[in-house]
Amino acid sequence: MELELLKVHGSMNTFYLLEAEEHESHSRLAVELCRQDGSADGLLLVAPSQRAAAKMRVFNRDGSEASMCGNGLRCVARYVCERDGIEEAVIETMKADLHVKKEPVLEDGIEMYAVEISPVSFRLEDLPMAYGNHSEWILKPLPFISAEIPFTAVAVPNPHLIGIVPAVMQKDSSHQKEWAELFNGPNEYFADGVNVSYASKAGEGIFVRTFERGVGFTNACGTAMTASALVSCLAGIVPYGEVAVYNPGGMVKCSVLQKGGSFELRLTGNATYVSRHRFLWEEGTGEGRLAASDELGEQALYEKFIEQVSAITHQFV
Ligand SMILES: N[C@@H](CCC[C@H](N)C(=O)O)C(=O)O
Fold first, then answer.
1. Counting runs of H as helices and runs of E as strands, what totals does the chain give?
2. CA–CA dist 34, 14 (Å, integer)
3. Helix 70-84 with 222-234: angle, nearest 10 deg
4. pLDDT tens-digit series, residues 91-117
5. Does residue 249 have its Cβ closer than 6 Å to ligand 1?
6. Where along the chain is substrate bound (predicted)?
7. 10 Å Cβ neighbour count for 125?
8. Topology adopted by domain 124-268
């Protein structure tokens, strides 16, 4: 079977996007694509939905399925809006139907999309995380990791563990890697694994680096950046409202609003098309070959944008 794929990224968190009916072989397809293209972090499947403009499913590099992907949803939002000639839509995801919207194109020609990040839960059972008889863990050191770093466990709805660290600690990610690898193998705390982020104050905003479940370190993780913006507001590091979030792959804006006892979160950033590919796929054997690539010229524009934020990101990477 010949598949038509689009290579896309949000903040250099890179995916192959496929529009197709849902099929059990898509997890294996994700593994095979990421094996052949080491720059890819996973597969975004755009499938028909009974109740929304489309359904997004997300497969990590190791083939595991995630309930949500913020950077991926921006790319799916662009794909669906351009396909249907619309400027906003609702996209079905594993746990919620989410509103997405086209934003003004940046002056250097970068397509921008805003996506809702929801639902938000601090209940440990929603990650899941097991730690004694605690039901939440917000801005407190986890004694088995460090006596100094305040950690927060939050589901948006995929699971995140976020530590607020001094900027100097971002230069060497070995501490973060050690714990993230432990929590994403057999362990007593996170039965389904967890995305582990370290966040620090950066300029007027924050910088976030994430070790993703099912992938490893990525250039950026949209749900992690939005959850980190929320945690940074709770910690008083930045004010509520729009938070600039720098990452190894660029910069996004995360809006954090408090409504009664709950939070409304939104993630705005680039949705870049890198190239078009054909993939010759033997569903039976799980083997395939990335056959051809047409570069789409958008990546050069994005690289100029990265240069503009490099004065801040270079302090951390
Ligand atoms: N990169 C994504 C998150 C992808 C899923 C994550 N690895 C998980 O397993 O929860 C993002 O941009 O949010």
1. 5, 19
2. 10
3. 120
4. 999 999 999 999 999 978 999 999 999
5. no
6. 13, 60, 70-71, 158, 195, 212-213, 222-223
7. 11
8. Diaminopimelate Epimerase; Chain A, domain 1 (3.10.310)
Q: Output the six-digit token pair for 295.
A: 């570069």
The alpha carbon of 243 and the centre of ligand 1 are apart by a number of angstroms equal to 20
Per the CB < 8 A criterion, the answer to whether 45 and 18 are in contact is: yes
- Given ligand 1 and candidates 68, 120, 228, which is best to mutate, with the most ligand atoms within 8 Å of its CB? 68
Q: Is 133 one of the annotated binding-site residues? A: no
Minimum-distance ligand 1 atom for the alpha carbon of 158: 10
User: Any catalytic annotation for residue 69?
Assistant: yes
Give the tens place of pLDDT for each residue, 193-222: 999 999 999 999 999 999 999 999 999 999
- Choice from 116, 215, 252, 270 to test ligand 1 binding pocket (greatest atom count within 8 A of CB): 215
Q: Report the DSSP pairing between strands 13-19 and 65-66.
A: unpaired
Q: Output the CA 223–ligand 1 centroid distance in Å.
A: 7
Pick the CATH number of 2-115+270-313 from 3.40.50.620, 3.10.350.10, 3.10.450.540, 3.10.310.10: 3.10.310.10
Cβ of 226 closer than 6 Å to ligand 1, yes or no, is: no
